[in-house]
Amino acid sequence: MLAGVYALLTVGLSFIYGIARIMQMSHGQIYMLGAYCTFIFSATLGVNFYASILLSGIVVGLFSLLLERGLFRPLKAETLATLIIGIALMLGLEGGIQLIFGAREYPITNPLPGAVTVLGAYVPKTRLLIVAVSVGMISFLLVFLKRTKTGNAMRAVAQNPDAASLLGINVNGIRLLSFGIASGLAGLAGGLMMTIAPATPVMGSNLIIKAFLAMIIGGMGSLYGAILGASALAVIDSVGFTFIGHKAALLGYMAVVIILIVRPRGLLGGTF
Amino acid sequence: MAPSERPDHSSGNRRAVPIVLILFVLLLPTWVKDPYILHVLIEIAYFSIAALGVRLMMTAGYWNIGQAGFMTFGGYTAAVLVLELDVTSLYLSLPIATGLTALLGCAFGYVALRSLGLYFAIITLSFSLVIRQVVVAFPDVTGGLLGIFDVTPPQPLPYLGEFGDWERSKLYPYYLIVVLLLLTYLLMHRIEHSRFGMVLRAAAEAETLTKSVGISVMKYRLIAFTIACLLGGLSGAYATHYHMLIHPDYYTLWVSIYILVYVMFGGIKSIFGTILGTTALIGAMEILQFTMGLRAVIYAGVIIVVTMFLPGGIVSLPGTLKRLWRG
């Protein structure tokens, strides 16, 4: 279940990096925006909770298109400048939300109370929802990449943007679209998170480090790697927490160090 | 007057400016007595030292996102020296802490510099996180999550007053850090205009070519990284003595990132630019205190605007304005 949220974020991060070559530092804040959007839709506007989650994914995705077009596109990808802009966005978005909503936590909304027994363990239904949605969306994404024309175009841009543009692919458009899709997924993840944890302005920064670690473990710019890395990290975190408690966070970092020494490209690095 | 008729002030101006600035900085405390302002200036100064270390690696083409980790290490070493080993003289604890940090940097760099630029950034980032965890994991030595308070101040100097005297005298710490910053600046300047600096820049642009001339690029980079970590440790150790406390979350990952932003904001090409960038951003952070919540948004906005429109950092502003004027 934790892996689900990690995976949605990490896949998004990998997606953006693989296609648009942008290290989206503020991806965690996009996720956080999704959570707040869900809150606004469901609690303030009274929209059905599931619809709110979906809607916030879309809204956040559209908002991110503005970000890409206005801020990231003018800078050539892969330079220090995109990193700085991402950092500035982190600060700005977090500060902005804090300004509007304050630092208090926004409550959990649980549309599926109760638990289900799976293999002898009690699993809350909300966690199942998260797993289902994550698996569903990521599978959909993978199929989309393999089977559709746009998906193929995206893979082409990830492999070699210049060759792709020679083939007549609108590289800028593809970059824009991938940014939007990845951010939409992050927004969705934020909304999903509202079922098990309260929304705070800092939820993004807390989680994005995990996503970065997962991306490194799995391999930068590789989607399967992102999934693998996120799952591995989730397992390490959960198992570690059960046995060692809070120091378990150190295990994740140690895993990254080991990966960097043994196989710096990451477990599945190199292929999109 | 047409451009060709205007007198050429360029070289004369350029030589006078640094001397005037240095005099200004040295004489500042004679009329600015407000301890708060001096406090901010001191913070700017020691962050500048750390930032200059990061900048050195940037000229070599490596992004060091872990400077905060080295600051933490230097700081804790200094604190432990004072408290556990009764080293009360600043002139002993600073060099030792700095030296140990440099050694750590050397060892760390030996492993880390083998990776490509992006992975180096990630490794340094992980390092700073690991340092924090290590500090927390050994509370007997480091005070764990509580940090170390009451780091006893070093011996006072006559006239300049005591180091730990928060309200009344900031003169001693101020002059100390100004001298350290000047020395760092001179070091950076010497490196920049020396063969060492040239090799670093060459290796950053065309590594294989540089190696083919028989230069051991790794050696140069390692020395540069050791210097960068040395500066980080110095900065952290000084700060511990100045604040008389250290805490594992004092130099977070954010701080490393901020330092990177300071360097980029000020302009990577110029040493003075880094100091200017640090001054501008830390100053902006302080000034913006009064805008309460809006502060983060304005701060972010400023960074975004400068990054988009002044890729050379704010130090390139006069040049850009001049070009725009001439049309």
Features:
heterodimer; A: 272 residues; mainly alpha; two-stranded antiparallel ribbon; 11 helices; 73% helix; B: mainly alpha; 14 helices
What does this structure look like?
With 272 residues, chain A is mainly α. Chain A is built from eleven helices and two strands. Chain A is globular and about 55 Å long. In chain A, α5 packs antiparallel against α8. The longest helix of chain A is centred in the N-terminal third of the chain and has 24 residues, at 49-72. Chain B is an all-alpha fold and 327 residues long. Chain B is 72% helix and 0% strand. In chain B, α2 packs antiparallel against α10 (217-243), α3 packs across α10 and α4 packs antiparallel against α10. The radius of gyration of chain B is 21 Å and the shape is globular. The chains are: A mainly alpha (272), B mainly alpha (327). The A-B interface holds A 71, 74-75, 80-81, 83-85, 87-96, 98-99, 209, 212, 216, 220, 247, 249-250, 253-254, 256-257, 260-261, 264 and B 63, 111, 115-116, 118-119, 122-123, 126, 129-130, 133, 137, 253, 257, 260-261, 264-265, 293-297, 299-301, 303-304, 307-308, 311.
